[in-house]
Design brief:
alpha+beta; 5-stranded antiparallel beta sheet; 16 strands; about 50% helix
């Protein structure tokens, strides 16, 4: 800390540093009292005033220590570190003030309230921290095509969740307790998920983009409260996390990997990737330093009133394409339908933060990797694993996974839950539920994936179509065959020969049906639509599957098998990825539903009608078997 000094190069004495901190804290108290006068009693105000003085002063000193501890990642820049540290201490003290209100007054609705990791300190739990990391990764994928502001906002929010644990670092140093191994280890453990998150390529790119955007805002003099907070709080939290955890011993790093629920593959290879991954941290640090070390930025941040008068953070709203653009599909096949539809939802929607308690419904056994691929290794099929799975014939599977409302069952869905294009859609974009489905849902089946997916299940002796034929059902079957992670899902529907719409070739249903069957594969792919929904389940899974139609054959490669007067089958290529893994992990706690339809292209084909709708109730993956006859 002796290397800190004034911007003009003259050394900063302890007296001048103390004076700077006192002036900063005094102004901060005034602002703090004005902002929270209605919420805080005299007792809380007094404690918050003392906390401001303490954290403001500590932040100035510790900010300089950040530059020293992060070496060789951080280059000399202790002056700005001290300024940012003081500002960070002030901002963090405000955040703590809100938590103090929650603890002392017991207000569960207090702004900024977090679930307690330690009831006596009001710190976020490890479960909450891990959940927010997964939410961040999912949101960054979700907003990949959205304005950069959306991704910046996501990163800001997840960074704030870790701020109380960064505050703990400040306090440990203030109390000269940083050598307390137990307390230090606890803080490092809770910062580990964030530290490993910072290694992700998408996160690195987002931080670089946020730094560049902030620099341009200072250039133009358009810095708002969001940018000011990013410079004062968000960036210092990131730097402090890197500086605190980057230089731990290999043994400690190994332990942190386990605590952060990193994948087994990453735990075994982290040391080999260390140089490569460390370069990502260097990119983060250099991009932040390029902004916060500028003279004009330092001068602005030294003013505690800078941007405070501009009010609270605005709500981030995400402009998204219309349904017409969504229906066009994408050129590159995504890792899952949910990820594709999530990134191109129509309308304008605010950034939705996970509500307090959402992590309680989440599965903690989710792996964290450094790559931009799947976060869940369990979603990938394994020959060794499949060799241990039991086999079961179609009759036994029908009994084990029967129609009903109990756990591990399927049922026919309600068409009233699925608004689709109405008769006037091309005029007013109005959507309404249809009266009845065009087809009868006969059966839903889950089987474990063997070495290769089973194709043309309509002709396979160990799937439902063959069983139905054996029982005398001679109707025309419409079959969907999905390969989802390490499972196959087969949906079998039947055409009713006496259906009224079938007798009238001019009916909207008959027009789309005949156009689909008689068209080539390209035209079929442009018409078949699937709508997915999570009716019950963890918050994050519900957010991953938004109830919107998607041209499923544009998102997943598919092959069509048509045997006239017998069956029509759609075989989809395997789909995998983080979203799929998240859904498979939560199936036993979720009610999943889907609706299938053929898109109306012409006015005469309106209104649209569902082919069928199905519901899957609390599927237990452990009960899913391999077919008895592969």
């Amino acid at each position: 800390m002796s290397g800190a000094g004034h911007q003009d190069g003259t050394p900063m004495t302890s007296e001048s540093a103390s004076s700077t901190s006192r002036n900063f804290a005094e102004v901060g108290v005034e602002v703090l009292e004005q902002k929270f006068e209605s919420d805080f009693g005299e007792y809380i105000k007094e404690r918050t005033r003392k906390q401001n003085l303490k954290l403001g002063a500590v932040g100035a000193g510790i900010g300089g220590a950040v530059g020293w501890m992060a070496a060789p990642i951080l280059l000399p820049g202790l002056t700005v570190a001290a300024l940012v540290g003081a500002a960070s201490g002030y901002s963090l003290s405000k955040h703590w003030g809100k938590q103090e209100l929650q603890r002392e007054v017991g207000d569960p609705d207090a702004e900024g309230a977090e679930p307690a990791g330690d009831a006596s300190q009001g710190l976020p739990t490890m479960r909450r921290l891990k959940f927010m990391v997964r939410w961040c990764l999912w949101q960054l994928r979700d907003y990949e095509q959205a304005p950069a502001e959306a991704r910046h906002a996501v990163l800001d929010e997840v960074t704030r969740v870790f701020s109380p644990w960064v505050q703990q670092l400040y306090l440990l140093r203030t109390k000269s307790a940083f050598d307390d191994a137990a307390e230090t280890a606890e803080v490092q453990d809770h910062l580990a998920p964030f530290f490993f998150l910072l290694h992700r390529k998408s996160v690195v790119e987002t931080i670089e983009s946020a730094a560049v955007t902030l620099g341009r805002a200072f250039d133009k003099g358009t810095v708002d409260s969001v940018g000011a907070e990013r410079a004062r709080v968000i960036f210092p939290i990131i730097l402090e996390t890197i500086s605190s955890l980057d230089r731990v011993s290999p043994a400690t790093m190994e332990q942190l990997l386990k605590i952060a629920a990193a994948s087994a593959k990453l735990q075994s290879s982290f040391s080999d990737q260390r140089s490569h991954l460390r370069r990502r941290l260097q990119l983060i640090v250099s991009s932040i330093r390029a902004v916060v070390e500028r003279d004009d930025v330092q001068k602005s941040l030294a003013d505690p009133k800078f941007c405070i008068h501009k009010g609270p953070r605005p709500t981030i709203r995400i402009p998204l394409p219309s349904e017409g653009e969504h229906d066009c599909g994408v050129s590159n096949a995504p890792s899952s339908p949910a990820e594709s539809v999530a990134s191109i939802r129509p309308g304008i929607e605010p950034l939705q933060l996970p509500p307090i308690g959402a992590e309680q419904d989440d599965d903690e056994e989710v792996f964290l990797s450094m790559s931009d691929g799947s976060d869940n290794e369990s979603a990938k099929p394994s020959r060794t694993a499949s060799a241990k799975i039991k086999t079961s014939g179609i009759k036994a599977r029908c009994q084990a996974y029967a129609r009903g409302h109990k756990k591990h069952s399927w049922n026919v869905g309600d068409v009233a839950n699925w608004p689709i294009r109405s008769e006037t859609y091309f005029k007013d974009r109005r959507k309404l539920p249809c009266c009845s489905p065009m087809l009868e849902l006969l059966h839903c089946d889950w089987v474990a994936l063997g070495e290769t997916p089973i194709r043309k299940v309509s002709e396979h002796k160990d799937f439902f179509p063959a069983l139905a034929r054996k029982d005398g059902d001679e109707r025309f079957f419409f079959v969907l065959n999905f390969v989802i992670g390490s499972f196959q899902a087969v949906i079998t529907m039947a055409l009713k020969p006496d259906a009224p719409w079938l007798a009238n070739s001019d009916s909207p249903q008959a027009r789309v049906w005949n156009a689909f069957l008689d068209g080539d594969d390209e035209k079929r792919a442009e018409r078949l639509k699937l709508i997915l929904s999570v009716d019950e389940g963890p918050w994050l899974v519900k957010r991953a599957f938004i109830k919107k139609p998607m041209l499923i054959c544009k998102l997943l490669n598919a092959s069509f098998h048509h045997k006239p007067n017998d069956y029509f089958e759609v075989d989809f290529e395997p789909t995998n990825g983080p979203t799929i893994g998240m859904v498979l992990n939560s199936m036993k706690r979720s009610v999943l539903s889907c609706a299938l339809l053929i898109e109306a292209k012409e006015l005469e084909e309106l209104p649209e009608n569902l082919l069928a709708t199905a519901v899957s109730n609390y599927v237990e993956p452990g009960r899913i078997c391999l077919p008895a006859h592969p």
